[in-house]
Write a structure and sequence with these properties.
- By secondary structure, this protein is mostly helical.
- The chain has 2 domains: 10-49; 51-83, no CATH class.
- It has helices at 11-24, 29-42, 45-49, 52-64, 74-82.
- The N and C termini lie far apart (57 Å).
């Protein structure tokens, strides 16, 4: 037996829930919300606390300033990692 929960979501968040529902071919918004909550609760703590926006900003700055490397093969990448 489960518990009933009432949520009030901002329209922008609900729109994302509906998009997830459509992409996941779920029958209704309740099942979409359930799946999203279930997924969030199974994420390792590292991923829950990680600041993805900051990491993306740092990556964009690295790319813009040329602090990136390109490799023509996986072997070349592994050689660089081992150096």
């Amino acid at each position: 037996m489960g518990k009933k929960v009432a949520l009030e979501l901002p329209d922008s968040m609900f729109d994302k829930v509906m998009k997830f529902k459509e992409e996941s071919h779920l029958p209704n918004e309740e099942s979409a919300i359930y799946e999203l909550i279930r997924y969030a609760l199974t994420l390792p703590l590292y991923f829950r606390d990680f600041d993805w926006e900051m990491a993306e900003t740092e990556a964009d700055l690295d790319i813009a300033s040329g602090r990136v490397k390109e490799f023509s093969s996986v072997d070349e990448l592994i050689t660089d990692l081992n150096a």
